[in-house]
Automatic annotation (TrEMBL):
This is Transposase. Pfam families: HTH_Tnp_1. GO terms for biological process: DNA transposition. GO terms for molecular function: sequence-specific DNA binding; transposase activity. It comes from the Bacteria. InterPro entries: Transposase_8, Trp_repressor/repl_initiator.
Amino acid sequence: MLTGPERRRRWSLEDRAQILAEAFAPGAVVCDVARRFDVATGLIYTWRRQALAQEAGPAFVPAKLVDVASNGGAAEPAMCVDFPSGVKVRIGAAAPCDLAAAIMRALK
């Protein structure tokens, strides 16, 4: 039976945001910020990963497939994907399917 105070600290979202802002400010050293707030550096990186995952979230990207036969076999890409950031990816018809899939996984 444990009768002492709880050892695990609970950090509010505001406290986490402040620590993350200080830890990842230009020129800051994460280890120094962690010592100042008495937090493990691994916890700071975990908080950052969680914050980035919440911001990114899943998103759908419009994809346009080009029928190679309809344009006479020209050197047009077989697939063209426009990302919201403005990046366009064109994958040629001769590209293996597993290569195209790997490219799309890497860019998502």
